[in-house]
Amino acid sequence: MSSIKLYCEGKEGSHDYDILSKTIEGLGIKPIPIGSIRGAGAIIEFLERGVERATFKMLFRDRDFDKAIPNTPILEQDPERKYCYFSYRNTIENYLFDEHTLFNFVSEKKEQEKYAIQSVADAKGKLIEAAENIKHYQAVRHTMGYLRTGETNFGTKWTKNSGDLPESLDENYCKQKALEKIMQAKNLTEVWNIEDFEKVYANFLPQFNNDFMNEMQFLVYFQGKDFASSLKKTLPNFPIESYYKFAKKHFDYTKFTDLVELRNLLQEKTKH
Question: What's the rounded Cα separation, in Å, for the pair 94 and 121?
Fold first, then answer.
């Protein structure tokens, strides 16, 4: 009898766990949360030493600036750790935002007037506004993710956690804080210089243009917790946790190519 194991970030009841549970519903597989992605390999190796070793195992994880966004919405397999698969979108929260869900949420709460969202178009406008407010910060985070290496891993933020937006979202401020963070790394000048930073940043920012915003591509590229924090600023007193519960309740994995691929892959493995 085959043993299929699907590992994920977070814990039971986390966004990862809940979204994956909906995606694989009916397959007889239950997600196994392992907490932080850091050290995931060692954790999975330890768990696989148990009595019931998996005949097929998969770790589904965020990109979160560790891996570039691909050109097509695919479930991407790690070429080195074959059991590891990356989401298409940057983080798991990105799958919970769209204009229809936001409009339906405020409509159910009867708070269309409070948030000035009287239509799906209004909801889209609010999402775009939240994205515009953090585009420079997100361009900086993508730049830091691109430049860092194993030897000089300076992270992609200078705030404590993702979702903690910097005190200023001004372009020059964000670039300066990023450079300060980067320059703290040892032997950095042997790898690249400030000119390299500017070149990489200049490649990312133009992507975040009007077409990008209107096509809602920020729901793919931007960090989900950062975006949620920006949305809460755009919609003061917005109950984000209630929104997440609503979005997960009505979540439809079939809207996302990579999640459909994930289900199909696991479904195929259950036949062997």
Answer: 19
Q: Is the pLDDT of residue 36 over 70?
A: yes
pTM above threshold 0.70: yes
Q: Which amino acid is at 250?
A: H
Cross-strand bridge partners of residue 85: 60, 77
**88-118 pLDDT per residue, tens:** 999 999 999 999 999 999 999 999 999 999 9
Query: Counting every residue, how long is the chain?
Result: 272
| Phi, psi for 219 (deg, rounded to 5) | -70, -10
Counting Cβ atoms within 10 Å, is residue 264 exposed (0-12), middle (13-18) or buried (19+)?
A: exposed
Q: Are 130 and 115 in contact (CB under 8 A)?
A: no
Distance of CA 5 to the CA centre of its chain: 22
Neighbours of 55 (CB within 10 A): 13
| CB-count burial class (<10 Å; 0-12, 13-18, 19+) for 153 | exposed
Positive/negative CA dihedral, 80, 220, 114, 110: negative
